[in-house]
Amino acid sequence: MAVPKKKTSKSKRDKRKATWKRKAALQAQRALSLGKSVLTGRAKGFVYPTQDEEETEE
C-alpha cells in the first residue's frame, strides 16, 4: 500500500490551497461577468435561445 514518505510542509500545503481558492474566485468572476453580459444583451460569445424564438418554433 502506498504511504507518503515525508510530511508536507505547511507552506506547500498553504500554497496549494491558495492556488485552488484563486482559481475558484477567477471562475466565479468570469461566470458573473458572463451573466451580466447576457442580461444586458451584450454577450457575443454565448448563444442562447430567446423567448421570441421559442414561441415561434411551437
UniProtKB/TrEMBL annotation:
InterPro entries: Ribosomal_bL32, Ribosomal_bL32_plant/cyanobact, Ribosomal_zn-bd
Ranges of biased composition (kind: Basic residues): 1-24
GO-annotated molecular function: structural constituent of ribosome
Species of provenance: Synechococcus elongatus PCC 11802
Pfam families, sorted: Ribosomal_L32p
KW Aminoacyl-tRNA synthetase (keyword) present: no
SUPFAM superfamilies linked: Zn-binding ribosomal proteins
Ribonucleoprotein keyword on record: yes
Protein family (similarity comment): Belongs to the bacterial ribosomal protein bL32 family.
Name of the protein in its database record: Large ribosomal subunit protein bL32
Keywords from the named record: Ribonucleoprotein, Ribosomal protein
One Gene Ontology term from the biological process aspect of the record: translation
HAMAP family: Ribosomal_bL32
Chain intervals for the UniProt region annotation (Disordered): 1-25
An example Gene Ontology CC term for this record: large ribosomal subunit
Primary gene name: rpmF
